[in-house]
From TrEMBL, chain A:
Pfam families associated with the record: UbiA (PF01040)
Molecular function via GO: protoheme IX farnesyltransferase activity
Principal subcellular localisation of the protein: membrane
EC number(s) given by UniProt: 2.5.1.141
Protein name: Protoheme IX farnesyltransferase
Reaction(s) this enzyme catalyzes, per UniProt: heme b + (2E,6E)-farnesyl diphosphate + H2O = Fe(II)-heme o + diphosphate
Quaternary structure and interacting proteins, as annotated: Interacts with CtaA.
TrEMBL record, chain B:
Keywords of the record: Membrane, Transmembrane, Transmembrane helix
Bilayer-spanning residue ranges: 18-37
Highest taxon, organism lineage: Bacteria
Organism annotation: Palleronia pontilimi
Protein name: Cytochrome C oxidase assembly protein
Length: 308, 64
């Protein structure tokens, strides 16, 4: 008889490790906004087709997450927040992440095209390309505006949901895109102000470091002013309604006040009260996006019920 | 001689195999469901059955 030896790797990947490659928490935001974009559209999809479309958009988003983890494994290993991700912790190899990312990208784009239309599929393909190649590979490590560019990738899902239902890109979908796109920079820079981030060690340029904190405060205010205009504008299109308009005016007034307060402060004041204003602004920013899309859904429900 | 002993490695791989199996079954269900919905959206479909179908004859033969 011969002896047989089994060489098992130290950490063998479980199914959950492969699932973690898809960034499930980012996926929940993708699902919510794509769902809102789809339901707000004037054309209604068959519920099962709608469900499949959301699923394929989510899988496409997950695929771009896996490709991002493959490419960024070196900086993920340096930063505390990302050190436990499947690739830097050694549970999944980089080439596995690459293979899964590529396979799921192709799968999700083709399936979305077959289920709905090829414009939506093309937008999903472009989103994956934009996030992986333009953001992760090219601009993330070279420019402090990386947050702004990365935000564009996160802003596509409601537009894809809208296009999946209607087959065309219209003003409403562009405004929903703008809502997330313009919201991302104030959201992340507020976080960067009070989190002593370890992006420095990883060599990722952040605005707080390259241009300083006062410049970051000015940027937050500028983006918030533009954001408020676009957010309220959406309320006057066919996607908006009374619920959205009231919510948008109230939320944006509050958001503008927060951005103004951040702009007026300096580091001495901020450190004196342990960044209370910045932390409150960041927490509110999460609610801000959630309520905007929730209000869009509420108006869509009112329209479906014939109440407006 | 049958090999019955189960290595601890097989237990660890089970989650992967079961997970992948469920994903594949789900994929089959989705493709089947999409097919049903898409075919139903076509409306009434007439199969080709080697029989003359009067409605497909050229218009000039239709009675006025």
């Amino acid at each position: 008889m011969t002896d047989m030896t089994v060489q098992a790797p130290e950490h063998e990947a479980q199914f959950g490790d492969y699932f973690a490659l898809l960034k499930p928490r980012v996926m929940t935001l993708v699902v919510f906004t794509a769902f809102a974009g789809m339901l707000v559209a004037p054309v209604s999809l068959h519920p099962f087709v709608g469900f499949c479309a959301i699923l394929f958009i989510a899988v496409g988003g997950g695929a771009s997450g896996a490709l991002n983890m493959w490419w960024d494994a070196d900086i993920d290993a340096v930063m505390k927040r990302t050190r436990k991700r499947p690739v830097p912790s050694g549970r999944v190899t980089g080439s596995e992440a690459l293979a899964i990312g590529l396979a799921l990208s192709g799968f999700s784009v083709v399936m979305l095209g077959l289920a709905t239309n090829w414009l939506a599929a093309g937008l999903l393909a472009f989103t994956i390309f934009f996030y992986v190649v333009v953001y992760s590979m090219w601009l993330k490590r070279t420019t402090p505006q990386n947050i702004v560019i990365g935000g564009a990738a996160g802003a596509f899902p409601p537009m894809i949901g809208w296009v999946a239902a209607t087959g065309s890109i219209s003003l409403e979908s562009v405004l929903m895109f703008s809502l997330i796109f313009l919201w991302t920079p104030p959201h992340f820079w507020a976080l960067a102000l009070f989190m002593r981030s370890d992006y420095d060690d990883a060599g990722v340029p952040m605005l707080t470091v390259t241009h300083g904190r006062p410049a970051t405060r000015r940027h937050i205010l500028a983006y918030t002013i533009i954001l408020a205009a676009f957010a309220v504008w959406l309320g006057f299109t066919s996607a908006g309604g009374p619920v959205y308009l009231v919510a948008a005016i109230a939320l944006n007034a509050w958001f503008l006040k927060g951005a103004w307060d951040i702009f007026r402060r300096d580091e001495v004041m901020a450190e004196a009260d342990n960044y209370t204003t910045e932390k409150a602004f960041f927490k509110f920013s999460l609610l801000y996006l959630f309520i905007h899309f929730g209000a869009l859904l509420a108006d869509a429900a009112l329209r479906a019920g014939g109440l407006i | 001689m049958a090999i019955n002993a189960e290595h601890e490695l097989h237990g660890r791989r089970r989650s992967r195999n079961v997970g992948l199996g469920l994903v594949l079954v789900g994929f089959i269900a989705i493709v089947f469901g999409l097919t049903v919905v898409k075919v139903k959206q076509l409306g009434a479909v007439q199969g080709f059955d080697h029989v003359v179908r009067p409605e497909m004859l050229p218009g000039e033969e239709a009675p006025k």
